[in-house]
Amino acid sequence: MFGEEIEGLQDLGHCVEVKFQHAGVRRFGLVIGADGLHSKVRRLVFGPLDRVETQLGYFVAAFESAGYRPRDDDVYVTHSDPGRMVGRVTLRDDRTLFLFVFAADAAALATLPDLAGQKAMLHARFGADGWEENSRILDALDSTSDIYFDRVSQIRLPKWSKGRIGLVGDAAYCVSLMAGQGSALAMTGAYVLAGELARASGRDVEGLASYENVLRAFIDTKQRGAERFAGAFAPKTRLGLFVRNQVIKAAAIPGIARFALGRDIADRLKVRAYPWGTLPA
């Protein structure tokens, strides 16, 4: 139902009663929240974000601009100083995507500023940077009204489901934007979720629990790796920048990347081939 929003959830044991903003109240056998880091389904069932969010000490911002020059096709260009990084990558139709990452203290991370505050914060953090492109990037920033701006954080829940209501993807186990893999982990989670529900043959609460049992240790490993990886985007010291740059250069040598980063980039999860023919109609 496009253009709709969930306003209330009540698990009745045999089904879930869902109150919609426009469509009234309807009943469903299962409710799965796949609505991202700021999940409304999760908030309604497990409480506010601050109960389950683990902040990693950074802000991230991104926006697009048309006609930016210079344009380096198929190249990701970055510039870093201690505690901050700005990068750009070309998109189709002569557009460029810009990404900012910068360290912030707990007080700054406590609230998210409005659009004017976001631009002011980015100017304050990057305006005095020595990179020659920064002034042009900040000029492009001033002309946009659409910025993605958020804390870099993870979602850590003691359980991914409650009764007949479950979560998948970033809503359940966001590893953080800077770690990547969000889409891949969401698709893996959806595959396992569907398969375990099929194996449960109508015992849906058991299926939700099995889905978590299969994936929990794997996701925990991914989240620990993401914590280590987050600092590589914007190391907070000159020494950290130097070490990060040397690791990146060394990764071009065959075998070095797997040796240095293997435990974080190599996935060893094995999932069963599910009997999809047993899915209920």
Shape: globular
Return the structural class.
alpha+beta
Tally of structural domains: 2
* Element string (H = helix, E = strand): EEEEHEEEEHHHEEEHHHHH
What is the strand arrangement across the widest sheet? 6-7-8-5-9
Q: Percent helix among the residues? A: 25-40%
Given as residue ranges, the uncertain stretches (5+ residues, pLDDT < 50) are none
Biggest sheet character: 5 strands, antiparallel
> Beta-strand level of the residues, as a percent range?
15-25%
Number of separate helices: 9
How is the CATH topology of the largest domain named? FAD/NAD(P)-binding domain
The overall pLDDT, averaged over residues, is 89
Level-1 CATH class name of the largest domain: Alpha Beta
| Number of strand elements | 11
CA radius of gyration = 22 Å
Which architecture of the largest domain does the CATH hierarchy give at level 2? 3-Layer(bba) Sandwich
Distance between the termini: 20 Å
Structure overview:
The chain is α+β, with helices and mostly antiparallel strands and 281 residues long. It has two domains: 32-52 and 162-276, FAD/NAD(P)-binding domain, CATH 3.50.50; 55-153, D-Amino Acid Oxidase, Chain A, domain 2 (2-Layer Sandwich), CATH 3.30.9.30. It is built from nine helices and eleven strands. It has a five-stranded antiparallel beta sheet with strand order 6-7-8-5-9, with helices on both faces. Strands 1-2-3 form a three-stranded antiparallel beta sheet. Helix 3 (115-126) packs antiparallel against helix 4 (134-142). The mean pLDDT is 89.
